[in-house]
């Protein structure tokens, strides 16, 4: 069966739910909100050519919001980097599948968890590609709450200054973080105007519309500037009782909640 974006998004949500339930872990809401963009990235080699983890010509994909790692792990298993069955060790002692993104997992470029770390690394990767005159592209998925970290804004200045048009950031703008909304914690508005003022090309898209995502990502790669997608998303997307609910940042589904959630995300 061909891996379409719809099938990939459904499978990423299914696996993410099972992993978080199995490990009694957190952050399922954060994982569900990026399932669609991950599905687009892994099924669109013309946009993001991940190839194999050690291929020097591969595009680089960094998950800065490392707490949503189950979505990335699930996507990489669909990409064929490792067997799906190995995911079931997630959260176990000595498992490479840690509760935050781990570079011990094939396809994970850098370990992330402390927010604000991936952007500086991504800038270094993009600059290295420029200096070596290599064509690969760097993508970074960030959370909106994470943008309250100053290291990101230093990176935004650096990227524009060095004309890193081979760098695309994807902001998961679901307006929830930890225990509150982003707006009430430390507002980022107007985020689009701030990024433009820092010298970035900006695209505002639905983070759950696959065609919009594909079109925006294609435009971003063709931009003469570093590019930012502000994805308007719903935390917990796909599971009605998790959607836009801050409690699912830390809560793990019980058996009944898992069954009900799977009934909503698994395609017939």
Task: Kindly describe this structure.
- The protein has a single domain, classed as Rossmann fold (3-Layer(aba) Sandwich), CATH 3.40.50.970.
- The protein is α/β, with parallel strands linked by helices and 268 residues long.
- The chain starts with a helix and ends with a helix.
- It has ten helices and seven strands.
- The longest helix is centred in the first third of the chain and has 19 residues, at 5-23.
- It has helices at residues 5-23, 28-33, 35-43, 69-78, 118-131, 150-161, 182-186, 191-197, 210-222, 255-265, and strands at 60-63, 138-143, 167-173, 176-177, 180-181, 201-206, 227-232.
- Strands 1-2-3-7-6 form a five-stranded parallel beta sheet, sandwiched between helices. It has a two-stranded antiparallel ribbon with strand order 4-5.
- It is globular and about 50 Å long.
- The mean pLDDT is 96.
